[in-house]
Amino acid sequence: MSSGIAIRGSRIGGSASSESERGDAAPRMRISYYCANGHETKPAFAVGADIPEEWECTKCGLPAGKDKQNTPARPHTQVYKSHLDYVKERRSADEAKQILGDALSMLRARRAAGEVIY
Ligand SMILES: [Zn+2]
């Protein structure tokens, strides 16, 4: 493994397998689950099967729920977020510029007053 280039195999007969499902397969339906990151996961369930309230998101692993507007809470322990991530969530880019500008002007004022010396 030095090149890092994967060689893709051809999918011989890939389309024929669907034929074997004809006849005895139970009718299925897809249920949409939504995680807190906005991903949609659509597992298929047999009609009449118990549909779980939550499903694990296949993209990020967060619990996903059926209500798009009310996704399950993030587990605190699994997802690491840096302080900067939290700041980005709370602040828009414009606000960040504003805050940075305020901080700089305050710093300049303090430096002019002799409180901060660089
Ligand atoms: Zn997700």
Automatic annotation (TrEMBL):
Record has Metal-binding as a keyword: yes
Single GO biological process annotation from the record: positive regulation of DNA-templated transcription
Cofactor: Zn(2+)
Cofactor binding, note field: Bind 1 Zn(2+) per subunit.
Region feature (Disordered): 1-25
Keywords, sorted A to Z: Metal-binding, Transcription, Transcription regulation, Zinc
Listed Low complexity bias regions: 1-18
Record flagged with keyword Phosphoprotein: no
Molecular function (Gene Ontology), one example: bacterial-type RNA polymerase core enzyme binding
Residues given in the record as Zn(2+) binding sites: C35, H39, C57, C60
HAMAP family registered for this protein in UniProt: RbpA
Oligomer status and interactors: Forms a complex with the RNAP catalytic core and with free principal sigma factors.
Function: Binds to RNA polymerase (RNAP), stimulating transcription from principal, but not alternative sigma factor promoters.
Recorded family membership: Belongs to the RNA polymerase-binding protein RbpA family.
Protein name: RNA polymerase-binding protein RbpA
Source species taxonomy: Bacteria, Bacillati, Actinomycetota, Actinomycetes, Propionibacteriales
